[in-house]
Specification:
- This protein is mainly alpha-helical and about 130 residues long.
- It contains two helices and two strands.
- It has a two-stranded antiparallel sheet.
Length: about 130
């Protein structure tokens, strides 16, 4: 009977060893698959990082261009305002001079109205008005 118990214990040990070796082998396979997945993910992360750096560079370039355009627009707007102010001052000065001359002649209101109707200043520029013939 001891032989049977020894044989069964040996068979159980061998079965346990075979199961343990199978478990270890399955673990090795899983580990190698997971290592391959990790390598793939690392390469994808590296590619994504490079693309993000490229996008960041492009974004900073666009921001610089927008700042440059905004400064140019501000400069042009400032110059446009200066021109409009100069034309307005010229118009006022001309009206005053014509008014001074017209006072001597007695027709100030007609000459000032002619100047106001002849020269008009808008945001789009200086426009000379002409009467349309009917």
């Amino acid at each position: 009977m001891e032989e049977i118990i020894v044989k069964e214990v040996i068979a159980a040990l061998i079965a346990g060893i075979v199961l343990y070796v199978g478990f270890i082998n399955r673990m090795r396979t899983q580990i190698s698959v997971l290592e391959e997945k990790i390598k793939n993910l690392e390469s994808k992360c590296e590619k994504a990082t490079q693309e993000m750096a490229h996008i960041t560079n492009a974004n900073s370039t666009l921001e610089e261009k927008v700042k440059h355009l905004e400064s140019r627009q501000d400069s042009h707007s400032k110059k446009n305002d200066e021109v409009i102010n100069l034309i307005t001052e010229f118009k006022i000065e001309m009206a005053e001079k014509i008014g001074d001359m017209s006072i001597k002649m007695g027709k100030i209101s007609a000459d000032v109205e002619i100047i106001n109707n002849t020269i008009a200043v808008f945001d789009s520029g200086v426009v000379s008005k002409t009467k349309k013939k009917k």
